[in-house]
DNA sequence: AATCGGCCCAACCGCTTTGAG
DNA sequence: CCTCAAAGCGGTTGGGCCGAT
């Protein structure tokens, strides 16, 4: 037995709202409010609509201060950041973006932002230069952070820990940044001449085994709290597997690495971006052996992935 | 100019959550 | 507690629009 319908489908209008219906709904709510009862509202407002339909129309389109149109770089970064941490909980994400609705964000993610992160070019329906040239992260976040030393901690020596914890790392953002520096086959870095990943001014570090492993350090995105995700990552020597490692979320101008490394295959990173599954269970050891300076980046009992 | 294919987004559907009685 | 109606929410759909041919 199915669920009882919320209203008599045969008596309600469906489909796009007319300007007259919009005006009626808007006027009624501005005059009387919703009355705490959406089911009764359409009748009171003289609308042949389902209460749920009225609610959706109001929340997504008619209510004051709704923002439509292009998302800013900052909004992109916030969406990515929150998606990485909480998944597709659009209403929560929308709560961080004043004027945006969950529906808007969901549509934007599904049609544009996800593709942008994955590096899939979106077809241009209209020539809107500022829209199509927009990058995922503000260019200011692409700058490298500090000179090379053997200690990861000291790479951010001017910074101090702010938010340790399993949710402190945004693999979607870090993964997206890594993907952007790989070539089309995703098995070589673009800058073959230097054999370095070139997001920011990535450094080559020696692993504990004595062989060289290319590592990128980056700072990506920023959220509404003024937080950034610091991360490291790179391509293992066989170019078969990427590793993404433990950036901590730090307050701008402060912070030290504080998270255990995570590594993913390229496919896993793509899957992560595609599915949006939060990453809390995928901590594994640092493949290079050089991460974790100061003993703050590795935890005992880490899961081995392979 | 006509047709086609693909993208976008408003709206719908139905499941889950909430809270009043 | 339990029940049930209403609200909230996220996934999905389909029509309109636009660019390509």
TrEMBL record:
Protein keywords: DNA-binding, Nucleus, Repeat, Transcription, Transcription regulation
Gene3D superfamilies, sorted: Homeodomain-like (1.10.10.60)
Main location: nucleus
Every HTH myb-type domain range: 9-62, 63-117
GO cellular component: nucleus
InterPro entries xref list: Homeodomain-like_sf (IPR009057), Myb_dom (IPR017930), SANT/Myb (IPR001005)
Pfam families, sorted: Myb_DNA-binding
Domain Myb-like residue range list: 9-62, 63-113
Compartment(s): Nucleus
Span of the signal peptide: none
Gene Ontology molecular function: any one: DNA binding
Domain of life of the source: Eukaryota
Protein name per its UniProtKB record: Uncharacterized protein
Upper lineage: Eukaryota, Viridiplantae, Streptophyta, Embryophyta, Tracheophyta
